[in-house]
Amino acid sequence: MQFIEFEKRIEEHSMWMNAPHSHEYYELYFLRKGERSLFVESAMFSVPENTFFAIPPYLLHKTEGRGYERININISPELLDAPQQAFLRQVGSCGLRMDNETGGLIFRLLDKGVELQLRNASDRQENQLILAKAILLLLSEQTAAPLHAVSAVTAGKQETDVLKIVFYLNTHFREPLSLETLSREYFLSKATLCGKFRRVMHCSIMEYVAGLRLTKAKQLLRYSDKSVEEIAEECGYSSPNYFGLIFKKEVGLSPLNFRKSR
Fold it and tell me: If pLDDT is split at 50, 70 and 90, which confidence band does 145 have?
């Protein structure tokens, strides 16, 4: 189902997400006030105010930090053309710091999109799509101007260790994984390994792996013609039956019904 929405959020106090998550749509993240740490796939970014970040579908991510104000545009890939999606994939690898003039104009357009969301008129989505494409055009035209890429966080040892583990999980999730294997790989006791991971990621290692496998399975069901059996094997599930049980429990649909709903 194609959709677009403008979502505004203001938090006065610190907020941490419990675990990384993913969406079936693009999350276009505009931070107006505050500073956030953004985890995307296996990198952590320090995101200052007046920054735009694009998070593609089926990419694990989470944010954390102190009080902030942001506006998201959540939009189905099908509503964007190939050049727009290519631009968003490019921005998703680094983020863009907007200059004050560009940022001011874009946030005025975003505020208008939020107004339309609250009004919910019959032509809401049509008008929001016009606004979204105007915003993307403004951003794409500014890439040759001094918009500065957001740099990765200069992490402490604990964060660096955890990001290394996340990278390992992201590249080995198709294989059988255990805490014993990771302990040997990183020369850490299981208790130290689990403690470090939970303090940074706010979830257990096996919860992260389960979410990663489910995200990859959804992506393959949506965008490939591979069989359920092939997807189960490719995503690290022990059997197609086990994959089906886990998928139905977490998503509320069987893998085949999820595919039919695309």
Answer: very low
Q: What would the pLDDT profile of 49-62 be if each residue is shown by its tens digit? A: 999 999 999 999 99
Q: Which domains, and CATH codes, for the chain?
A: 4-149 (2.60.120.280), 157-260 (1.10.10.60)
Contact 20, 39 (CB under 8 A): yes
Phi, psi of 208 (to 5 degrees): -65, -45
* Tokens at 93, concatenated: 């690898």
pLDDT digits (tens, 9 = 90+) for 74-93: 999 999 999 999 999 888 77
Residue 157 pLDDT greater than 50, yes or no: yes
Global confidence as pTM: 0.86
Q: What is the DSSP string of the chain?
A: ---EEEEEEEESS-EE-SS-B--SSEEEEEEEES-EEEEETTEEEEE-SSEEEEE-TT--EEEEESSEEEEEEEE-GGGS-HHHHHHHHHHTTT-EEPPHHHHHHHHHHHHHHHHHHHH--TTHHHHHHHHHHHHHHHHHHTTTSSPEEPPBP---HHHHHHHHHHHHHHHHTTS---HHHHHHHHT--HHHHHHHHHHHHSS-HHHHHHHHHHHHHHHHHHH----HHHHHHHTT-S-HHHHHHHHHHHHSS-HHHHHHT-
Average pLDDT of the residues of the chain: 89
Residue 147 has pLDDT above 50, yes or no: no
φ/ψ (deg, to 5) at 16: -125, 135
